[in-house]
Design a protein that fits this description.
This protein is about 20% helix and about 30% strand. By secondary structure, the chain is an alpha+beta fold. The strands form three sheets. Strands 8-7-6-1-9 form a five-stranded antiparallel beta sheet, with no helix packed on it. Strands 2-5 form a two-stranded antiparallel ribbon. Strand 6 and strand 7 form a beta hairpin.
């Protein structure tokens, strides 16, 4: 026969399980909001509308040496194809819309970027600065 204490023990066990699950979910959400991962959230994309007069596509040039306990290493972004080559830059103007993954990527220096969800250059993953527009999900 099940006693009142048995029922309370089962309820406590379920409560602990739910609290642990919620804590894990909160940690995952926090990591995504702080730019954890590479910005790819799978097939779900959003529209990024450029609000600055222009923005240039960036790529990951390398990684800094920030310790993992601080969230590093962080990607070092560079204008595509490079800082010194002007021809071939991928430029977007105010009002342009670009499909992106909605998770921001935190880069070296604390700047956030959105990963472009379409391949504009074969074999190259490109990003846009989050401060250059607004995300419409």
């Amino acid at each position: 026969m099940t006693t009142k204490d048995d029922i309370y023990a089962q309820i406590e066990s379920v409560r602990q399980y739910v609290n642990t699950s919620l804590d894990n979910l909160k940690a995952s959400i926090s990591e995504l909001e702080e730019g954890g991962g590479d910005g790819d959230t799978g097939p779900i994309t959003a529209t990024f509308t450029i609000t600055s007069s222009k923005t240039l596509a960036h790529f990951v040039h390398g990684f800094n040496n920030a310790p993992k306990k601080l969230g590093g290493p962080f990607p070092i972004m560079m204008i595509y194809p490079s800082e010194v080559i002007i021809d071939g830059r991928i430029k977007f103007l105010e009002g342009d819309t670009v499909p992106v993954y909605p998770t921001r990527v935190k880069a070296d220096g604390g700047t956030f970027f959105y990963k472009i969800a379409q391949e504009l250059v074969a074999g190259t993953v490109l990003y846009l600065r989050s401060s250059d527009g607004v995300l419409i999900e």
